[in-house]
Amino acid sequence: MATITDRPEGSLLRGTLTTFRRRCGKPTCHCAGGEPHESPALAYTEAGRTKTLTLAEAEVAEVGAALARFAEARAELERAGDAGIAALRSRRGR
């Protein structure tokens, strides 16, 4: 199975890591009277709607790393955009 980090620089993912907590509905399950089942998930928007993708425990670390890479790339892009605006304003004398 390929992982999202197969590329040398690693992949980017946008969204948020979250945890689903739910009861399965089986009357004999431990969740019926106690703690609900927990599953890690990636929440993201697509076409204006929030989508979720349930993750395997083994995927949580790599998804978290890809989310961190996205946040850093976004911050770098924002810094570059700010520098471009500053340069334009400087050229115009403002």
What would the keywords be for this entry?
94 residues, alpha+beta, 3-stranded antiparallel β-sheet, 34% helix, 24% strand
Tell me about this structure.
- The chain has one helix at 60-91, and strands at residues 16-22, 37-46, 49-54.
- With 94 residues, it is an alpha+beta fold.
- The chain has a three-stranded antiparallel sheet, with helices on one face.
- The longest helix has 32 residues, at 60-91.
- The protein starts with 15 loop residues before the first strand and ends with a helix.
Secondary structure: elements and pairs:
Elements: E1 16-22, E2 37-46, E3 49-54, H1 60-91
Antiparallel strand pairs: 1-2, 2-3
Give the spatial strand order of the biggest sheet: 1-2-3
> How many strand segments?
3
Judged by helices, strands and strand pairing, the structural class is alpha+beta
**Arithmetic mean of pLDDT:** 89
Round the Cα radius of gyration to an integer and report it: 20 Å
Based on Cα principal axes, name the global outline. Answer: elongated
Helix content: 25-40%
Largest sheet: 3 strands, antiparallel
Query: How many discrete domains?
Result: 1
Which blocks of ≥5 consecutive residues have pLDDT under 50?
none
Give the N-terminus to C-terminus distance in angstroms. 55 Å
Determine the number of helices (DSSP H or I, runs of at least 4 residues): 1
- In N-to-C order, the SSE pattern is EEEH
Strand coverage percent: 15-25%
